[in-house]
Structure formats: C-alpha cells, structure tokens
Design a protein that fits this description.
Layout (H helix, E strand, L loop, with lengths): L5 H24 L26
Pfam family, one: ATP-synt_8
Family: Belongs to the ATPase protein 8 family.
Keywords: ATP synthesis, CF(0), Hydrogen ion transport, Ion transport, Membrane, Mitochondrion, Transmembrane, Transmembrane helix, Transport
Length: about 55
C-alpha cells in the first residue's frame, strides 16, 4: 500500500509548514486597520427614560 509510505508525504508536510511559518506571519503582522480605535470618554452618558404609551 503506497499511501502508508511516509517518505514523500512527510517532506511535503514539513516544507508546507515551513512556508506557513516563514511567509505568513510577517504578512499578517503587517496588516493595519483602516480606522484606528480611539479611546472613549469616561464621563457617564445622560440616560433618558423611555416613555411608552401603554393602553
């Protein structure tokens, strides 16, 4: 059964993981968001009661 021979598939797996570990992290870490998050104000917001007309 040739599918049980790990010789060719182990090298393919090893090379593919090396590609993932070498090339992808810099591309992912270089990603920037279009809108940088801004800090929200710490003052409490004014809460208005919701008036609902019950019948």
């Amino acid at each position: 059964m040739p599918q049980l021979n790990p010789a060719p598939w182990f090298l393919i797996m090893l090379f593919s993981w090396c590609m993932f570990l070498i090339f992808l992290p810099p591309k992912i870490m270089a990603h920037t968001f279009p809108n940088e998050p801004s800090s929200q104000s710490t003052s409490p917001k004014e809460i208005k009661p919701w008036t609902w007309t019950w019948h």
